[in-house]
TrEMBL record:
InterPro entries: AlkX_C, Homeodomain-like_sf, HTH-type_TetR-like_transc_reg, HTH_TetR
Lineage, broadest ranks: Bacteria, Bacillati, Actinomycetota, Actinomycetes, Kitasatosporales
DNA-binding region, residue range(s): 51-70
Domain of life from the UniProt record: Bacteria
Name assigned to this protein: TetR family transcriptional regulator
Coiled-coil region: none
Organism per entry: Streptomyces yangpuensis
Domain HTH tetR-type: 28-88
Record keywords: DNA-binding, Plasmid, Transcription, Transcription regulation
Length: 211
């Protein structure tokens, strides 16, 4: 205990980071390997064909270790999609903040980023492609209202809208953010036009709600 305390104190004084205890470090490594294996298998064959046994074998860990970390197959799928979509939100935030003075152009750029990035990310592209064919059980994690991904996206957009339209009521901002996120996801799955035209139209429709 004393040795551990001194390592923490030394790291603090020198500005270094404190290494994780071996058990924590091992768990983080295991989680990362499992997620990478699940991602690769999903891109290769689709989530419908991915089993926990196959993921464990690809990650070179035991099947019980996968269950212990993620609970079940649904838990693994949820963690996988959340991890992949984090960069979506980061990219959207970059497009929104500080953004350009024109709110419409700023929102249009953010929506266009999402539409284009979906084609560039192998896992998201695999999920959407499978959904267009009527399969793939990872899709609900992208579209469910009561899901952290949806909520995080809506919170991000609503916060940005509040900076651009401070005179609007919270209810109006919530509604506009909800429309933006829902319609963008809908057009990811069932594109109706060229991406730049879709982004332009969605931005126009959403901002009309605040006028």
């Amino acid at each position: 205990m004393a040795a551990a305390r001194h390592r923490i104190e030394a790291a603090t004084l020198t500005g270094g980071s404190v290494p994780d205890p071996p058990r924590v470090a091992w768990r983080k490594q295991t989680r990362q390997r499992v997620l990478e294996a699940a991602r690769d298998l999903t891109c290769e064959a689709g989530w419908d064909q991915v089993s926990l046994s196959a993921v464990a074998a690809r990650a070179e860990v035991s099947r019980p270790s996968v269950y212990k970390e993620f609970g079940n197959r649904a838990g693994l799928g949820r963690a996988l999609v959340i991890l992949e979509t984090q960069q979506f939100l980061a990219g959207v935030a970059d497009a929104l903040y500080p953004g350009v003075p024109d709110s419409h152009a700023c929102l249009e750029a953010a929506i266009l980023y999402v539409l284009q990035e979906a084609d560039n990310q192998p896992l998201i592209r695999a999920v959407i492609t499978a959904a267009r064919k009527g399969s793939d059980s990872l899709l609900p994690y992208l579209t469910a209202r009561a899901d952290p991904i949806f909520d995080a996206g809506q919170t991000l957009v609503q916060g940005w809208l509040a900076t651009r339209y401070p005179q609007q009521r919270t209810e109006s901002l919530q509604m506009a953010a909800d429309v933006i996120v829902r319609m963008t996801i809908s057009h990811l799955i069932l594109p109706a036009d060229e991406q730049h035209l879709t982004a332009q139209r969605l931005a126009t429709t959403a901002l009309k709600l605040l006028r």
